[in-house]
Design goal:
alpha+beta; Cytochrome p450; 5-stranded mixed beta sheet; 3-stranded antiparallel beta sheet; 12 strands; about 50% helix; heme binding; oxidoreductase activity, acting on paired donors, with incorporation or reduction of molecular oxygen; oxidoreductase
C-alpha cells in the first residue's frame, strides 16, 4: 500500500508537467448541428422565401455571438459575422480557408469551377477568366452589348402597356451571355439552353437528397443536359479555331480554347472550360438581372433619385447620333447611375451569402473550426450595420461618392480581396447599358407591392409587374 502511494505521489509532478506542455483545448463554436443531413437548412430556406433570412441569421448572432455552429445542406458549418470575419475569409490563403461550395452547388456547377479550386489551379483558371473579363478586353464588347439591349427593348417593351421586369431582365442577360460569352446565335439552340438553365439554377441551394421529383434531382438532370450542350459547342469551336485561327472579337469559349502556355499546351482542360462557363452563366445571368430589376423598382419609389439618373443619362443620349451605340467613354460618365447601383447592391445584394471550407483546423476568436467544416458568410449583415453605414435603411447613393471612405471588407456584394468576383466589371457594363436605354426610352410605375422573397436570389412579387409608357428626350 505504501509502495502504491509513493508511486502515485511521484507521478503527480510528471502529470502536471505534461499537462502544462499540452496546448489548451479549444472548443468548437456554440450552437447546434440539428437533425443529421437536414440540420438548419430548411429553416434557413423558409426564412429566405419569407424574406426574413437576415433576421433569422441575426437571431443566431444575438443568441450565440458572431461565430456559431450549425448544419447546412448536409455539412457541419460555422457562421461567421463582421468585418474581421469577412477579412479572414477573403484574405486567408487556400491552405487555411479553401474554396468549396455546398454539395448541391458543387454537383450542379462541377468540381473544376473557380468556386472549388485552390492553389495553383485556382490562380491558373482565375487568370484565364480575368484576362477575358478585364476592362481592356471588355471595351471591345460595349457595342455588342448595346445592340443586344436595344433589340431586347424593341422585342419585349416597345408598344406594351405592362411588363414583368424580372423575367424580361433574365431574358436580356441570358441573351447577352449567349452572344458575348458563347457566340451562340439566336434560335432553337438558345431556347433549349434557357429552359435547361432555368431548371438548373432552381436547385443550387437545396438539401442534397437525390431522389425523383426533388429540386436537387431536377437541377442535376438539367445540369447534365447543359454540360452535354456545352461539350458540343466546345467541340465545334475547336474545329473553327483549327481552321480559321483566333479573331479579335471572339467569345469566351473560343478565347479559353485558344489560350496556350509556353510549351503550346492548352491552359485549361475541356472540363475546366465547361464548368467555368457554367459558373459565368449563373453569375452573369442571375446577379445582373436581379440588380437591374431592383434598380427599376427603386427608381419607381424614389422620384428625386430617378430624376438625377435620368438627367445624367439624357446628357449622354443627346451627345449620340441616331443609331450610334454607347462607348466605353460614355459608360465612364455614368458615375451617379453606378452609385445608385452600388447602393442597390448594399441594400439588396443578389448573393445572400456563400461558403468556404476549413482546409485545416482553424483557431479563430478563441474557438476551433475543425478541418473539413463549412464556413458560411452572409453578405447583407455588414451592409446593414448602422455602425458602418449610418441610417442603413435609408437609400443614399452619396455613400459611394468616395469609395475609400467605406471600410474595407464591409461592402462585399462581389466578395473581397484576392477573391473578388472576376465578372464584376462585366456586370457593371450590363447594368449601365440596360439602365441607360430603359430610363431614356420609358417611364414606369409599380403595379404590385414591394414584397420580395429569396430563392436564393431576391425575387419581387409576381416578377415586378410595371405599367410603362414611352418617354421622349427632354
Amino acid at each position: 500500500m505504501n509502495l502504491l502511494l509513493l508511486s502515485f505521489l511521484l507521478l503527480i509532478p510528471i502529470l502536471l508537467l505534461l499537462r502544462r506542455k499540452r496546448k489548451p483545448y479549444k472548443r468548437v463554436p456554440p450552437g447546434s448541428l440539428g437533425i443529421p443531413i437536414i440540420g438548419q437548412s430548411l429553416g434557413l430556406l423558409r426564412a429566405m422565401r419569407a424574406n426574413t433570412a437576415e433576421k433569422w441569421v441575426q437571431e443566431r448572432i444575438n443568441k450565440y455571438g458572431p461565430i456559431s455552429k450549425l448544419s447546412l445542406f448536409g455539412k457541419p458549418t460555422v457562421l461567421m459575422y463582421g468585418q474581421a470575419a469577412n477579412k479572414f475569409i477573403f484574405s486567408s490563403g487556400g491552405n487555411t480557408v479553401a474554396n468549396q461550395q455546398t454539395q448541391s452547388i458543387r454537383m450542379i456547377l462541377g468540381d473544376r469551377s473557380l468556386l472549388e479550386l485552390r492553389g495553383e489551379d485556382h490562380s491558373r483558371v482565375r487568370g484565364a477568366l480575368v484576362s477575358f473579363l478585364k476592362p481592356e478586353s471588355l471595351k471591345l464588347y460595349v457595342g455588342n452589348m448595346d445592340e443586344e439591349v436595344r433589340r431586347h427593348l424593341e422585342m419585349y417593351w416597345e408598344g406594351k402597356q405592362q411588363v414583368k421586369v424580372l423575367p424580361l431582365m433574365k431574358t436580356l442577360t441570358f441573351n447577352i451571355i449567349c452572344s458575348l460569352l458563347f457566340g451562340l446565335e439566336r434560335g432553337k439552340q438558345r431556347e433549349k439552353f434557357l429552359d435547361s438553365f432555368q431548371k438548373m439554377i432552381e436547385g443550387m441551394w437545396s438539401v442534397p437528397i437525390n431522389v425523383p421529383f426533388t429540386r436537387y434531382n431536377r437541377s442535376l438532370r438539367a445540369s447534365a443536359k447543359i454540360q452535354n450542350m456545352l461539350k458540343e459547342i466546345v467541340h465545334n469551336k475547336k474545329i473553327v479555331l483549327e481552321q480559321n485561327g483566333a479573331s479579335a472579337h471572339q467569345d469566351l469559349i473560343s478565347y479559353l480554347l485558344g489560350m496556350v502556355d509556353e510549351d503550346g499546351k492548352q491552359v485549361l482542360t475541356e472540363k475546366e472550360i465547361i464548368h467555368n462557363v457554367m459558373l459565368v452563366m449563373v453569375a452573369g445571368h442571375d446577379t445582373s438581372s436581379v440588380l437591374i430589376t431592383f434598380i427599376i423598382r427603386l427608381l419607381a419609389n424614389e422620384p428625386a433619385i430617378s430624376a438625377a439618373v435620368l438627367q445624367e443619362q439624357e446628357e449622354i443620349a443627346k451627345s449620340k447620333q441616331p443609331g450610334e451605340t454607347l462607348t466605353w467613354e460614355d459608360l465612364s460618365k455614368m458615375k451617379y447611375t453606378w452609385r445608385v447601383a452600388m447602393e442597390t447592391l448594399r441594400m439588396f445584394p443578389p448573393i445572400f451569402g456563400s461558403f468556404r471550407k476549413a482546409a485545416t483546423d482553424i483557431e479563430y476568436d478563441g474557438y476551433l473550426i475543425p478541418k473539413g467544416w463549412q464556413i458560411f458568410w452572409v453578405t447583407g449583415l455588414t451592409h446593414m450595420d448602422k455602425s458602418i453605414f449610418p441610417e442603413p435603411s435609408k437609400f443614399d447613393p452619396s455613400r459611394f461618392e468616395n469609395q475609400a471612405s467605406v471600410p474595407p471588407y464591409c461592402f462585399i456584394p462581389f466578395g473581397g480581396g484576392a477573391r473578388i468576383c472576376p465578372g464584376n466589371e462585366f456586370a457593371r457594363l450590363e447594368t449601365l447599358v440596360a439602365i441607360h436605354y430603359l430610363v431614356t426610352r420609358f417611364s414606369w410605375k409599380l403595379c404590385s407591392d414591394n414584397f420580395f422573397s429569396r430563392d436564393p436570389m431576391p425575387v419581387p412579387t409576381q416578377g415586378l409587374p410595371v405599367q410603362i409608357w414611352p418617354r421622349k428626350l427632354s
